[in-house]
Specification:
- Residues 253-390 form the Acetyl-CoA hydrolase/transferase C-terminal domain.
- This is Acetyl-CoA hydrolase/transferase C-terminal domain-containing protein.
- The chain is α/β, with parallel strands linked by helices.
- Helices cover 28% and strands 21% of the residues.
- It contains 13 helices and 21 strands.
- The protein has helices spanning 8-18, 38-48, 83-88, 101-106, 134-139, 184-194, 209-217, 232-238, 255-266, 275-278, 281-286, 322-331, 382-394, and strands spanning 24-27, 52-57, 72-78, 92-93, 113-121, 124-127, 144-149, 164-170, 202-204, 223-224, 228-229, 250-251, 291-295, 299-301, 306-307, 335-339, 343-344, 347-348, 350-351, 367-370, 373-376.
- Strands 1, 2, 3, 4, 5, 6, 7 and 8 form an 8-stranded mixed sheet that branches. Strands 10-9-13-16-20-21 form a 6-stranded mixed sheet, with helices on both faces.
- The protein is globular.
- The protein starts with 7 loop residues before the first helix and ends in a 7-residue tail after the last helix.
Length: 401
């Protein structure tokens, strides 16, 4: 969110009064990340010394963020904008599922200050396109220094923030994310997944081509209970297949999504909520309606273990809410679904040994879907799971297809 009218020098002076030597500063999550503060914060940190930085989900590059200005950089989520920092060694990627972030940020990584984007309501300031882990910190007494975004969506559900120092105003909208059209393989996968979704279910899906294809393939009305909420939810609403008000910790999409969410928020139906709510495994597994968790993967091994974080040392992905939603769906009346193409760049996505960490364990995977068919792993032993997955990748799915 860059803005030519933003007073960079004034923000730097204000931050200079707030940031102390050795302080830990957290920069807010997702598409509402205050990119205009990256430069001022870097310059203040370089002068102050010993400043430590915590990053959440970074959706796009932040070229004005100078890693050399900080004594330590940790990312608790990741994202495309953090990839270069992690792969260069400038930042440490802390392995943590999203439901664990409140404890992590209240304990060993507790910040002294949160930098964020807020929107102004008649009764005070709230976060706009995201709530995530920042809401809990703010309500626990961590001060918030923020830019006020005039055209960000009023999408957060919650009370006014208790302690906000305004560093300036911006006209721009949150960071926008485009999605390429689904491939033929995406469409075949989505059609198979759609048959697993009963009317009235709660569905979880992330951004990307597959989510677009899934929503297009659905023919029943559903609730949406998710993490990052992307544009397909608007398609669902326009088709008359969205039940109730969606729930997510952040918006992640285009201006179309932000405008739609803003309309709901101004009507008193805020969408974005704190991670303590959105990723509460007990709530997710017990709320009315089965939870169908649709997650993707970079690769899966013969036992059903899933890697979404990267292969061969890359920092392509993140843990995020993948294990939270998979566990919640597997323990409740719903389904934990892993959907992925059978190959990527000419290589099978079913591997003997994962090329990265285990993000989600095999016992939290119920069903695996590729463009070749479906493997239902529920109730199978280890050897049986291996045979079912091998048959899926060979195209010999038989009764599971």
């Amino acid at each position: 969110m860059n803005d030519e009218a933003f007073d960079d020098a004034a923000a730097e002076r204000a931050l200079g009064e707030l940031v102390r030597p050795g302080a830990r500063i957290a920069i807010a999550d997702a598409c509402g990340m205050p990119y205009v503060l990256a430069g001022p914060l870097s310059r203040v940190a370089a002068r102050t010394g010993g400043v430590r930085l915590v990053l959440g989900w970074v959706p796009g590059p932040a070229p004005e963020l100078d890693p050399d200005a900080f004594a330590d950089i940790r990312t608790v989520v990741g994202g495309p904008g953090a990839r270069a920092l992690v792969e260069s060694g400038a930042a440490h990627r802390v392995p943590a599922r999203l439901s664990a972030l409140p404890a992590l940020l209240a304990g060993p990584l507790r910040p002294d200050l949160v930098l964020a984007t807020v929107v102004e309501h008649a009764d005070g300031y709230r976060f706009g396109a995201e709530s995530s882990w920042m809401r809990g910190l703010a309500e626990d007494g961590v001060p918030v220094a923020a830019v006020v975004a005039r055209h960000a969506p009023h999408a957060e559900r919650g009370a006014p923030l208790p302690d906000v120092t305004v560093l300036g105003e911006v006209d721009g909208t949150p960071f926008t994310v485009g999605t390429p059209p689904p491939t033929e393989a995406d469409q075949r996968i989505a059609e198979a997944v759609a048959t697993l979704v009963p009317a009235g279910a709660r569905i979880q899906f992330g951004p990307g081509r597959l989510a677009t294809a899934l929503v297009a393939a659905l023919g029943v009305a559903v609730h949406v209970d998710s993490g990052l909420l992307a544009d397909p939810v608007v398609d669902l609403a326009e088709r008359g297949l969205l039940l109730g008000t969606p729930s997510a910790l952040a918006l992640h999409g285009s201006r179309r999504l932000y405008d739609w969410a803003d309309g709901l928020g101004r009507a008193g139906h805020g969408i974005v909520r704190p991670v303590e709510y959105t990723h509460d495994i007990s709530r997710l597994s017990s709320d009315p309606g089965p939870l169908i968790a649709l997650n993707t993967a970079l690769e899966i091994d013969g036992s059903g273990q899933v890697n979404v974080e990267g292969v061969a040392g890359s920092a392509a992905g993140m843990i995020g809410g993948h294990p939270d939603f998979a566990a919640a769906a597997a323990r409740g009346p719903g389904l934990s679904v892993i959907a992925l193409p059978a190959s990527h760049r000419g290589r099978p996505t079913l591997v003997e040994h994962l090329g990265g960490p285990v993000t989600t364990p095999s016992h939290d995977v119920d069903v695996v879907v590729t463009e070749r068919g479906t493997a239902d792993l529920r109730g199978l032993g280890r050897r049986e799971r291996e045979r079912a997955l091998a048959a899926l990748w060979s195209g010999a799915v038989g009764a599971n297809e």
